[in-house]
Amino acid sequence: MTEQTADMYASLRSNVGHLGQILGETMQNHLGDAFLEKVEQIRILAKKSRQGDEASREQMLALLTALPDEELVPFAKAFNQFLNLANIAEQFHTISRNCDELVCVPDPVEQLLGRMLDSDFDKKDVIEGLKNLNIDLVLTAHPTEISRRTLIQKYAAVVDCLTEQENNQLSERERKQNTLRLRQLIAQIWHTNEIRNERPTPVDEARWGLSTIEASLWQAIPDFLRQLNDQVEQKTGQQLPIDVSPIRFSSWMGGDRDGNPFVTSTVTQEVLDRNRHAAARLYLKDIVALLGELSMEQANEELSALTDNSKEPYRDVLRKLRCQLRNTIDYLNARLEGKHPDTDTSELIWHKDDLLKPLELLYQSLSDCGMKLIANGLLLDILRRLACFGIHMLRLDIRQDATRHSDVIAELTRYLGLGDYNHWDENEKQAFLLRELTGKRPLIPTNWQPTDDVAEVIRTCNLVAKQPANALGSYVISMASKPSDVLTVLLLLKEAGCTNPMRVVPLFETLADLEGAAACMTALLNIDWYRGYTKGMQEVMIGYSDSAKDAGVMAAAWAQYRAQEQLVAVCKKAEVKLMLFHGRGGSIGRGGGPAHKAILSQPPGSVDGRIRVTEQGEMIRFKFGLPKVAVQSLALYTSAVMEATLLPPPEPKKAWRDCMQRIAEESVQHYRGIVREEPDFVPYFRAATPEVELGKLPLGSRPAKRKVDGGIESLRAIPWIFAWSQNRLMLPAWLGAGEALQDAADRGELDLLREMEAQWPFFETRISMLEMVYTKAEPNLAKYYESCLVKPELHHLGEKLRQRLQLGIDAVLSLTQATELMAHTPWNRESVKLRNPYIDPLNFLQTELLARTRKEVEPSASVQLALMLTIAGVAAGMRNTG
Hints:
By secondary structure, this protein is of the alpha/beta class.
């Protein structure tokens, strides 16, 4: 570790040590000196074991396997909570006053504006680019988000205490109070059950998403836009419009029914009502605060006329809004209680303009009367929140599997005596669908009684038809592959009476679907009726998770890149604007990694000021859980999309493309040669990882498998990644990639690979992501899982996988010409190293507990809870797990 990196860690280590000491005191008070000494002994032994001390490793294992049942839970809890507190300290370090330059880079928007405006860029183009940005971050539920909402709130309070401690003006008494508050919070955390007693419902997940907005994003959005406006004004002398909103938020929580039988039309309606309720409640709080501020009498003619020359014209308007918001909250409360209140919507905030127009009037009046300084305070913050969140808070996407829609039409055609739609070829399907879409008579008979599954799809479409356009985002079709998949949804929405032209979005997920995406969209956009429906805008979703699970990360990444290139060309030819929706996960194996890098590595022309990206569970908390961290994340997204639009990456050379094509083809062979063709792979996977046990954890509302009796092919991408991160082999994030890179080097293409890594952002990002997962992989720990949990006759496969891992590490180091992984990102490398001595004991204990639970018919409650805690702890330590 360099001296500079060590200095950078001084402040972080100080906070980690401070929080760890308080946690130790809490455990000591609760469980006594002997327990704390044992925990500390195991921690020190784990650290020595990391340094290659075999005797320490054996001693640590002996202590862990000898833990009595009554100590299993508190031990797992101790290491779990230390990792959570280390995460908090690290997250705080990025916004700390003592943040080092290696961690806290200058604001990316400010840097980008400087680069652009100091060159030949026209200021007007930059301003217009910012005005037209359309970045939609889609919050999704996550089965690997371990932390309960109540604990997340306590973690945020710990950050507040750390922030306060940096105030040099605190008196001694205030410092003692701050330390007391920290001790209280950590004691609360210790005595709170970290594992949910019951699996969360989709409504619980939606409420979790809303809590992130309330706790952080509600403040971060106006803070970010004020910062952005100041930067633009400083560089150009111009201000951004008051209604500018480069970033908006949507959600899948309560709308994503793909493989989740618990997301019904009833649930979706409740989530829509809760979203509105949360927005009304927060706006009411803002309006009440604004009432206290806008005590001015002077008003322009329009406001004076509206308020009959009132002595408090601004407050008169605000009092009416306050009343309407209270009525709205009462109305929504009644709906959430299952009632159907009959209310005059003129008494509510029912449309965005009901709130926007009066506030704009106040802003204009203050500006006209020389009080723009006041107008640009809280009032402008509220206007900017309205531009971002509207009155629905989050636009809810609907997602459903393509076969669920075709099954509706098939059941209907059979009932009508037209044959079985599912047995028709694609041309017959399209002809039928277009005939019905352009026809005037209804297709669905009023006396038809469909089966339950079909009826639920129809109820969802009926629900969509009743919603205001701004309440909903896109209708996403999973596993889409043909034009009929899109036309089917459009027909069902038409039959439901949907008058708002909702965006219907095909999601291309598997390798074959990505390769066929351009042909599918070409055929679709060649249909005159459909092209008219799009009104010049086509959204397409690119799946990262299932394509990587299908073909491995390297082949999937290249298929995603090529699909985007082809879709850009298809839409350009059809004179339709393309919005790409990136279904990225938190982990590398699911398209995760730094968003800034990921956006800048997209094909030139594929961003063009517009992008949608999923943000999932744990990553929502890490990126947006604290207001200052959220402002940084919003700035990263804004600068990346601006740069990708105005300073796009170069077109890859033909030699690069040809080389990448060979790498992709070889990597998929290496990947599938193990995952699909190795007969021992499935039993090895199920034995060497806690995959089976993960399905029993009450983590997310969605089942781990699409089909209850399915095998690996039906396993969702998230638990597939999560299981391999638990035993630290990280297999889905690298299998096939390193082997293909070595093949390329063996062909004499090493210099070409180095050129690609230096000059092609797409390839450089892939190598950087591989370095991260190789750094996090721990083959010795994976081998320990194997020795304890896997039958000896399967050990040959584990040996082969570990050899593949080392081969990949060597290939990447040869390419980068570095002596160690992540040499160019010391902060990230040291961050991984910092956690390892605390994750390792949890891994060793988890192995012991897995062995016990698999031997015993009825494992004790303490063993089961301790196992869950080890899974939670490893997830906390690994960060981007699924």
